[in-house]
Amino acid sequence: MKKKKLISVTLAGMLLAAVLAGCSEGDTLGDIAKEAVNAPKEVGNMSKEDIENKAKEALDTAGLSEGGAIVDAAGAAVDNAKEAFTAEVGDLAYYVAVTAMDKLNLETTCSKLKKAYLDEDWVAISDKIRYPLNMADGTVINGPEEFINYMADKTIAPEDKAQMEAESCHDMFFNGSGICFGSGQIWMNDASYMTDEEPKLEIISLSGIVPKE
């Protein structure tokens, strides 16, 4: 998601509200700006009503009334921010069948894992695995240290690297087994799904790994 775009949309609306209220460019305007910057970061996990309340709180903090043009400007800013967020991120409920993790956090996590895989950063990958992990050559890996040692003389096959490079980490394929990267180079799932535990995506399958020549 392009956070700067969302921030600028909401901030513009808030600043417009300040102008309509006849505010100076001092502390009052600064308070509005800070609240406006905070709102878009939370928008993915908030209802429209929650976001509207956030906008009104920003105006209250600045000592402004909630009447007339001020509320209209704030409401327009909220609507614009919500629309911009949805356009960037897509259907927020896309992964609801496999995890309770919010879409933005999930796809950000997957983008980082994609980079770690392509960089062959096996230390970073090791902390994201649910052990034991079964490798294609029959090796069973029982922990992070074993994984790092196993990968010491391994690399990624060119064709698998190409598949992962093409992965957008947006609206990714999933089924009952979990969420798939590329053409299956990484599979992850959330063992905490449908429980009271915090969502936690973990790697359950890793492929495309071959010995270094």
Query: How would you state the average pLDDT, rounded?
Result: 77
Rg result: 23 Å
Distance between the termini: 39 Å
Percentage beta strand: 5-15%
Give the helix/strand class: alpha+beta
Major beta-sheet overview:
4 strands, antiparallel
Q: If strands are numbered along the chain, what order do they take across the biggest sheet?
A: 4-5-6-7
Helix percentage: 40-55%
N-to-C series of helices and strands: HHHHHHEEHEHEEEEE
Taken from the alpha-carbon principal axes, the silhouette is: elongated
Q: What does this molecule look like?
A:
This protein is an alpha+beta fold and 213 residues long. It has 2 domains: 3-89, no CATH class; 103-211. It has 8 helices and 8 strands, in the order H-H-H-H-H-H-E-E-H-E-H-E-E-E-E-E. It has helices at 3-20, 27-42, 48-61, 68-89, 103-118, 122-126, 144-150, 158-165; strands at 133-134, 140-141, 154-156, 174-175, 178-181, 186-190, 201-206, 209-211. The protein has a 4-stranded antiparallel beta sheet with strand order 4-5-6-7, with helices on one face. The longest helix is centred in the middle third of the chain and has 22 residues, at 68-89. It is elongated, with a radius of gyration of 23 Å. The relative contact order is 0.12. Mean pLDDT is 77; it is low at 1-30.
